[in-house]
Design brief:
InterPro entries: DNA_circ_N (IPR009826). By secondary structure, the protein is an alpha+beta fold. The chain contains 13 helices and 12 strands. A hairpin with an 8-residue loop joins strand 4 and strand 5.
């Protein structure tokens, strides 16, 4: 059975149909061979792929063939590139390449033969200068941490406080650390363990003379203790989201210092608020660092092609298989942009200190610029539904004409086995 016949597509150019009696194409490499005097061996220099050219022997036929011919000639004479649906190659973006020959004959009445010449359009790309946005985020986070530390040292003061005031502050901060421990105990035990150690040392750090600088260092080290190796992008983003949750956690919200309270009560609340702000602000800056560390290649396809296999089909008994982390996809980036914008709005409304506020705004700008840069180099996501349970490589071949991108489909949708993609809506890159 000649199944190839059923795969042929109706030919058209810019939506104008025509028939095809034959075609030719030229492909290859741009090679220059250098032959040197008194040397037997030449050197051939490869300068890249040649532009693909298509020669199509087309015709229109029927009682209205002249109308069909005129429509096709009008489409061919339009300026710019257009979409050619080639019977054998499918849809390609091309330009008309030079002259088009049109032939009529009395022997073939009611028919017009047209010799079409096309060349692929390609892209007009210029070198562009881009900033190191991920490094800018890291620098802004470091600067913000310095401002947050200075603000804490100016607000937190228990040197002349009574013992019971210090004990109240220790109890309040211990409650904040209980919340941190409960959030990270399952998700990231390294942070919860560091929080437990810090909680046990509060009675040493806070009593006069309080060791504010050491407390700041311990808090920053607590957030940095989180794991840095992840099995997939979702795991890396989950670590970012956990830190962002701490920033918005009601248990760390500042308390009002009302004039109706006694001076000692106001001291307790001010010191507790200073500690809570330090926890929130350093967690926010650490989340931006972790987010900026997630790979953001300029060519996502190249990054996806690094992963050629799947644990379900390549695992060796007794050996762990660690898949590389894919770049953050378009949907994940837009969600991070929204949540970061809301989080910076919330924290900006309650942060204390001009320098801390300005540092927070600088960090906001760096993060949003980094996300914008990533979005510009990331394919948009669309929803596709397989017609039946299908291997991922088959879907990738049909959708992208590249079977090696099957691992991308599997990773983006957390599919258990790449050989069985269910007939359900899944999110995939548009290109």
């Amino acid at each position: 059975m000649d199944t190839w016949l059923y795969r042929l597509q109706p030919a058209s150019f810019r939506g104008v149909p025509f028939k095809v009696s034959g075609d030719e194409g030229t492909i290859g490499r741009r090679a220059i061979t250098h032959e040197y005097p008194l040397r037997d061996k030449p050197f051939t220099e490869d300068l890249g792929r040649k532009a693909r050219r298509y020669s199509v022997s087309a015709y229109v036929i029927g009682g209205d063939y002249m109308t069909q011919r005129d429509r096709l000639l009008t489409a061919l004479e339009q300026s710019g590139s257009g979409t050619l649906v080639h019977p054998f190659y499918g849809a390609v973006t091309v330009n008309v390449d030079g002259e088009i020959k049109v032939r009529h004959s009395r022997e073939n009445g009611g028919m017009c033969e047209i010799s079409l010449q096309f060349v692929e359009s390609g892209e007009l790309n210029y070198p562009t200068a881009g900033g190191a946005t991920a490094q800018n985020v890291d620098d802004a986070a470091d600067a913000a941490d310095g401002s947050f530390a200075d603000e804490f040292l100016s607000d937190f003061n228990l040197d002349d406080a009574a013992d019971w005031i210090t004990e109240n502050v220790i109890d309040n901060v211990s409650g904040i650390l209980d919340e941190v421990i409960s959030v990270f105990e399952i998700m990231d035990s390294a942070i919860s363990d560091a929080a437990k150690l810090l909680q046990g040392d509060l009675s040493v750090l806070f009593p006069p003379p309080s060791k504010g600088a050491e407390f700041i260092q311990r808090v920053q080290e607590m957030w940095a203790a989180g794991k840095s190796i992840y099995y997939n992008t979702d795991g890396a983003l989950s670590a970012v989201d956990n830190l962002k949750y701490i920033v918005s956690d009601p248990a760390l919200a500042p308390k009002g210092v009302w004039s109706t309270l006694s001076e000692t009560q106001q001291t307790v609340i001010r010191c507790t608020n200073a500690c809570a702000q330090l926890f929130r602000s350093t967690a926010l800056s650490e989340s931006t660092r972790k987010f900026s560390e997630i790979a953001a290649p300029k060519n996502n396809t190249a990054a996806f092609n690094v992963i050629r296999t799947h644990a379900a089909i390549s695992a060796v008994p007794g050996q762990k298989t660690i898949s590389g982390v894919l770049p953050v996809n378009y949907d994940q980036l837009t969600r991070q942009r929204t949540t970061y914008s809301d989080l910076f709005d919330q924290e900006g409304a309650r942060v204390v200190g001009d320098s801390a506020y300005l540092a927070l705004e600088d960090l906001r700008q760096a993060v949003l610029l980094d996300i914008r840069d990533r979005l510009q180099h990331t394919d948009k996501m669309i929803t596709r539904t397989p017609g039946d349970t299908t291997p991922a490589v088959v879907l990738a071949s049909d959708w992208y004409d590249d079977a090696s991108r099957g691992a991308e489909i599997v990773a983006l949708n957390n599919i258990p086995h790449p050989g069985f993609v269910p007939p359900e809506p899944i999110r995939t890159a548009s290109e």
